[in-house]
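Prompt: Have a read of the protein record below and flag anything odd:
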Amino acid sequence: MKRRLSLSGIIAIILFVFSFSAYALQFDLVYEFDGDLPVQSYGTVDVTENSGDLDFAIVANTTTLGTGADIHELYFNLITDTFTGLSISNSSAPNPFTLLGPNPSVSGGAGASFDWGVNFGNGGGSPGNGVLQSASFTLSAFQDLLIENLLELSDPNNTPPVTLAVHFQGTDTRSGSETVGGNPVPEPSTMLLLGAGLIGLAGWGRKKIFKK
């Protein structure tokens, strides 16, 4: 005889599945490409899906990079090369950000190569946007863009593979500029949904055992 799912069981499964649906991801930039600095957060990149576009928000960690750290360039990949008409809009600075790549590909330093990049200007120089410790923009294409399209790795010489990277200039580090990369970390809301789904599934399974 077939068993009907209880309401709590159905909710648990929905939460469990939904917890793996990524509509927003944060990338923690923890690897310095030269391998000279410790593994720690040098900044973050938040990416959010927005009706076929991707919204990016970059924040420098001035505790580890220094108060003069300036967001210079972002490097990233797109898993498929069929995207056309890539463009940047809704930038957070007075001068437009410049899209780099894909032919030739963009060098992230230390042997890393990325499909695409975004240049945010040269600080206070032309066509600079001053010192940017946070920057945001929207990436669009003729086709819908999803966060999963970003999840292709590049392999620097001195660090584990990374999904994307940012070059900061004006840092307080010995070289005065750093390229740092990282990979996605779960959003707190996603972790809460995952936890709720797991707890619900565990409770549902226990109920089935006791009913036998």
In short: The first strand starts at residue 24 and ends at 32. The chain has three helices and twelve strands.
